[in-house]
């Protein structure tokens, strides 16, 4: 099930043309190769090169810095299209784009000039270094420090679950520049760390239930000397504020990717139900299957609409932690439910690797736990409600 791109309200002709180009790329070059690439476990360098040529690593980078300069709703639509073909491709773009957004929004002029043009072409790829062994969702509890040393910082610590960390060239690292600060958030900063500098080491790779071609690693910082020019925005103590702004974009991208995966699963279920026969007819003629498909389709459209709403709110400059959290929460849970229903429609065939639904079933849980777990999203949403914020969004009576 794929919406006609011309039906997306508010997209101009140029934006629709970019979206259609991505759709053709996915249909002609990605989908026919996914099963083989997954089976072989090979890194899809040829597809990555095509993505570089299409400018997909520059989705969140302004045109003056060599990127496509797309509005966030268009970015989200493209992430959905990539995930419909292969969610690994969306994963290559997501954290890279979050880093690009942070540099473009909060970086100094020198930082934008140094990194964004090469990030736009994919020559330079970026990764987020946030999570630590003892600090997942509670980022104020991080132990990584960046202590002043000459004209810069000495960076020490460990970061877990760094997506694309082995192949990334640039790391956006959350660290404590003032470990004694109270509250702790006032002493936390973001640093742009070039991975080639001494003291930065990829320590190990996590082997996951899915996304085998998307490396997820631990990175150690062992007294790495980082220049003062690496401090995002040139001002210490603003790291969490800068990061949370970027993570709203990341959560919208995750929501859009979950919608794309769910659309792929529904399509597989619809196709299989039209081919598989039971009791003399294809199973899509059985009411039980029809009811399941109807629920799947309704959930899919609802998830897509809330994701577009979040992208539009963020693009308009509104505070978007609540709506982006809602989109991520609802889209990821919806994706999981749709994939589960698709597997049920496939029956035993859905459990074997010869059918795409087996892979999709393994991929879906990532969106529930990634970019802030769904329980964390619920807490953010509840806090905003209790604060009496976003009343217009909720449509509550005055």
TrEMBL record:
Residues 127-223 form the Acyl-CoA oxidase/dehydrogenase middle domain. Residues 237-386 form the Acyl-CoA dehydrogenase/oxidase C-terminal domain. Keywords: FAD, Flavoprotein, Oxidoreductase. One of its GO terms (molecular function) is flavin adenine dinucleotide binding. Residues 15-123 form the Acyl-CoA dehydrogenase/oxidase N-terminal domain. It comes from the Bacteria. Its cofactor is FAD. PANTHER family: ACYL-COA DEHYDROGENASE (PTHR43884), ISOVALERYL-COA DEHYDROGENASE, MITOCHONDRIAL-RELATED (PTHR43884:SF12). Belongs to the acyl-CoA dehydrogenase family. This is Isovaleryl-CoA dehydrogenase. It comes from Hypericibacter adhaerens. The lineage of its organism: Bacteria, Pseudomonadati, Pseudomonadota, Alphaproteobacteria, Rhodospirillales.
């Amino acid at each position: 099930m794929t919406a006609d791109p011309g039906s997306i309200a508010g997209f101009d002709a140029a934006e629709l043309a970019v979206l259609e180009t991505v759709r053709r790329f996915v249909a002609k070059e990605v989908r026919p190769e996914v099963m083989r690439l997954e089976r072989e476990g090979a890194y899809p360098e040829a597809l990555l090169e095509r993505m570089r040529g299409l400018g997909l690593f520059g989705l969140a980078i302004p045109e003056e810095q060599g990127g496509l300069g797309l509005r966030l709703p268009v970015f989200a639509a493209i992430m959905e299209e990539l995930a419909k073909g292969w969610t690994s491709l969306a994963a290559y773009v997501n954290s890279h784009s979050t880093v690009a957004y942070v540099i473009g929004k909060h970086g100094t002029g020198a930082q934008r000039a140094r990194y964004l043009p090469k990030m736009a072409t994919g020559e330079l790829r970026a990764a987020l270094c946030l999570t630590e062994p003892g600090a997942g969702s509670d980022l104020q509890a991080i132990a990584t420090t960046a202590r002043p040393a000459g004209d810069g910082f000495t960076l020490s610590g460990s970061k877990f679950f760094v997506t694309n960390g082995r192949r990334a060239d640039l790391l956006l690292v959350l660290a404590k520049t003032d470990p004694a600060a109270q509250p702790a958030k006032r002493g936390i900063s973001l640093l742009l760390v070039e991975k080639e500098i001494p003291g930065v080491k990829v320590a190990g790779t996590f082997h996951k239930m899915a996304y085998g071609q998307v490396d997820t690693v631990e990175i150690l910082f062992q007294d790495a000397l980082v220049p003062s020019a690496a401090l995002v925005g040139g001002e210490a103590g603003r790291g969490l504020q800068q990061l949370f702004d970027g993570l709203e974009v990341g959560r919208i991208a995750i929501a859009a990717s979950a919608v794309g995966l769910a659309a792929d699963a529904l399509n597989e279920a619809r196709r299989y139900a039209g081919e598989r026969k039971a009791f003399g007819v294809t199973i899509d003629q059985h009411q039980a299957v029809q009811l399941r498909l109807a629920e799947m389709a309704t959930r899919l459209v609802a998830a897509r609409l809330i994701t577009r709403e979040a992208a539009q709110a963020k693009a308009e400059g509104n505070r978007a932690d609540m709506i982006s959290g809602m989109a991520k929460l609802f889209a990821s849970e919806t994706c999981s439910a749709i994939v589960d229903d698709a597997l049920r429609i496939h029956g035993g065939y859905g459990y074997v690797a010869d059918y795409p639904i087996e892979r999709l079933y393994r991929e879906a849980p990532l969106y529930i736990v990634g970019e802030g777990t769904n329980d964390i999203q619920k807490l953010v949403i509840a806090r905003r409600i209790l604060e009496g914020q976003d009343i217009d969004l909720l449509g509550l009576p005055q």
